[in-house]
Design goal:
Number of strands of chain B: 15
Oligomer: heterodimer
CATH superfamily of chain B: HUPs
Largest interface: A-B, 104 and 91 residues
Helix content of chain B: 25-40%
CATH architecture of the largest domain in chain A: 3-Layer(aba) Sandwich
Helix content of chain A: 10-25%
Strand order of the largest sheet of chain A: 11-15-10-5-8-9-16
Distance between the termini of chain B: 59 Å
Order of helices and strands of chain B: EEEEEHEHEHEHEEEEHEEEH
Chain lengths: ~400, ~260
Amino acid sequence: MAVRIIAEKCKGCQKCVKNCPFTAITMQEKLAVIGPGCTNCGACIDECPFGAIEKADDGARGVDISLYRDVWVFAEQRDGALMNVSVELLGEGAKLAGEIGCKLCAVLCGENAGGLIDELFEYGADKVYYADAPELKSYNTDAYTKVIYQAIVKYKPEIVLLGATHVGRDLGPCLAVQCGTGLTADCTKLDIDPEDKKLMQTRPAFGGNLMATILCPNHRPQMSTVRPGVMEKPKRRPGAKGERVDLAVSFKDGEIRERVLEVVKGLTEQVSLTDAKIIVSGGAGLGGPDGFGLIKQLADRLGGVVGASRATVDSGWIDHSHQVGQTGTTVKPQIYFACGISGAIQHLAGMQNSGYIVAINKNENAPIFEVADYGIVGDLYKVIPAILEVLG
Amino acid sequence: MKIIVCAKQVPDTNEVKIDPVKGTLIREGVPSILNPDDANALEEALALKEKYPGTTVSVISMGPPQANYMLRECLALGADDAYLLSSRAFGGADTCATSTTIAAGIRKLGGCDIILAGRQAIDGDTAQVGPQTAQRLGFPSVTYVQKIREIKEKSVVVERQLEDGYEVIEVQIPCLLTAVKELNEPRYMSVKSIEDAYKKEITVWGESDVSLAPEDCGLKASPTQVFRSFTPPPKGRGEMLSGTVPEMASALIAKLTEKHAL
């Protein structure tokens, strides 16, 4: 579906030029011309007062989509434990499978990781595809890509979901190219079109300034990575059972071209922002690295963890693992305290779905107050000690 | 050693503001920049060039003609040559189609030993074009590279960033690596280097120059399509607490307790 200008209707008003989020439209001899920057987002179509812009089907190629069935979730394990995001995806996958009327399946790779199969059934998988080999013990791009690609070719899922972890965001693109299909990164919302049962994948773009709903109409599987912490975890049903399918695995010499020599864990303090119920975050308003001492005091008192804005991480005040936002971690705690954070769009994109947002900032016009449930205009060095006093 | 850096010109999303009345993006005056992660990729290539004599660094990009400003900046930073893949046929490309085009450009350059790309671009944040380009070229890839430890004759040893640490990976050459900002601190241009950059040519290639048919590029070769895009609805301002600092602190805790959040 390409966006096109209908030359006869275009009056040269330039409204589309001003409203194109990608500055892809230019004027040439009083006629709007769509340039190569166009992403077909369609924002201009609604803006045109003369109905001179349309989306036209240009007969894209694809595959016979009727051959593809079932929703697959990549069950990512590290050190033999299932990643939280994979469990969240089973919850979301069950919803999608229910709307389509198909099975929910998990695909698991590991070495002696069969113990996780029951856990996958208990979190809702109807079927688990399992590949067991020493080469699959921990994530390896070539090995995982080969095994899962072969399984996709053989069993033809219509949807494949992966967590947008450092692993899922590495595996997803490789699988998509092998399968000749599309991949939508970092989705925050997935829906099934009630009419044609296609997957509608919604994701933030442009630093969270714009949301885009993406379709993969003519290729299969429809693949998405989904940000950790966005979807709800399903309830575990102890004793639930399903079907186990073992995948044949064999590797030729030289087929795996990367080798993990060593894994170095937790050089920095373990921060689990995605699982935190309460997050206390500090921003540039702290004035320096020492300010995080006070942030930590409040976090500790509430049983929460310390978050940080990009500005503080870029200034070297705190490790990147604490960063909340578009380029950091997306979080959804019950309470999010934003202390001395002005509220850049990148930051808001990563925390605005929190249960309650408390903003403490000296500047009453700071954008953070626009998303806050409770706002306090004041010096965080006075406000936080006062809160600690109330908490006793 | 022959190194190719993949770079993208992006709008500086830090500078994007929302129109408070209409709720739409204000694009006017937003500068275009070299994508930050790509700057780290280029810096690493330039550092390797200094360390290993005889190394060449080429920069390749796909984008509209204006992207030559960004490529000019790459030359001024020290790249040897720059190539821009630019054609109407490339328009509307998703990551899948973009990687086909970039891979074709790299083939036209005769391949290389190491491709360095940024982890992701700040306008799309997909992190897909790097590894997808590697797949199309048949190269192994390592994403999220935070350190290049050692270059051996037939392999590279790198650190790959994880959420809770990192792993040390040895990968065969030729390969593609994607850079995170922890990899290095990009250098600045000098006046002299900017002057020199303007003496160099930027080569512009269309689809036929890199042996692609128009239907293998851009929108026509893109499995994903944007169905619609919209500005996320603002959540709306909540309650501003008032009074003295101790009063506001008490009110806050009382309200959070009342909502069973605490």
